[in-house]
Write a structure and sequence with these properties.
With 155 residues, the protein is mainly beta. Helix content is 12%, strand content 31%. The chain contains 2 helices and 10 strands, in the order βββαβββββββα. The protein has helices at 29-35, 141-151; strands spanning 4-6, 13-16, 22-26, 40-46, 50-52, 58-63, 69-74, 81-86, 91-95, 109-111. A hairpin with a 5-residue loop joins β6 (58-63) and β7. The structure holds zinc ion (2 copies). The site of one zinc ion has 6 residues, from α1. One zinc ion (ZN) binds at residues 7-9, 11-12, 75, 77-78, 80.
Amino acid sequence: MPLEGGCSCGEVRYRLASEPLITHCCHCLNCQQQTGSAFVINLLIEASRLELLAVEPRPVDVPRDEGKTQRIYRCPTCGVAVFSEYGGPAIKFVRGGTLDGGAQVEPDVHIYTRSKIPWVALPESVPAFEAFYELPAVWPPESLDRLEAAMAPHR
Ligand SMILES: [Zn+2]
Ligand SMILES: [Zn+2]
């Protein structure tokens, strides 16, 4: 069953045409601020595998601590953020909480745990990193191949 989701008002709807490359749970301060919550769950997927089924979300560039911007795509009507881009359009970071029925996915990796809220307890079985990580240490080989294919036209 492909994963589907959307914004609160229903104008923006999407479908993941493939399994995500990887699912991040990010505990960084930027994600906490943007979501107003303890962390964000991001499903990483190739742009070509994220099908927009209704209204096009609107991009908004948001500054991040490291001096870069993150492009967040929001519903033009209700303003809910459905996915974002870090540094380029090839890979979308779909916000897990916008999936139908909620974030029914388990993160493959926890990142930026140095700013994790203390009462959030992480499972021992899932890799966790103080900041970011080297992709081959965590990603399945198929996902690395898919990433390579997705990035090739952008190099
Ligand atoms: Zn909406
Ligand atoms: Zn983050």
